[in-house]
Amino acid sequence: MKIYGVALLAGCFLIGKFTGYALGMFINIEGDIGGVGFAMIYLITINSFMKKKGLLKKETRRGILFWGTMYIPIVIAMSATQNVKAAWAGGWIALLVGIVVVLLIFLFVPIISKIGNKKEPIKL
């Protein structure tokens, strides 16, 4: 059953990459625009849908969880390398902006991490 989780993850990845390249072609940029992000959105959406319908077995969920945890750090590391190379070619301002953004994100991590730690449910 774990293979179904891997197949679902791979399918979402391929569809996400296709979406990213299609978006890039639509706005006249040669390359993938957010394909990994689209893949993760597809995976989350399909996973939620299948859980609600009762179509997702325990072993399949384990396969998705395992490969999802392996997939995200690897892809982020690969895209981070590409972004650094592109920023270096773009000049000092691109590197400066990248450094400032990373520092701002580090400052917001403690704030964002406190959002999900509330004991009482959110009332709408």
From TrEMBL:
InterPro entries: Maln_transptMadL. Coiled coil: none annotated. The chain crosses the membrane at residues 7-27, 33-50, 62-80, 86-109. The keyword Mitochondrion does not apply. Keywords: Membrane, Transmembrane, Transmembrane helix. The keyword Transmembrane applies. This is Malonate transporter subunit MadL. It comes from Mariniflexile jejuense.
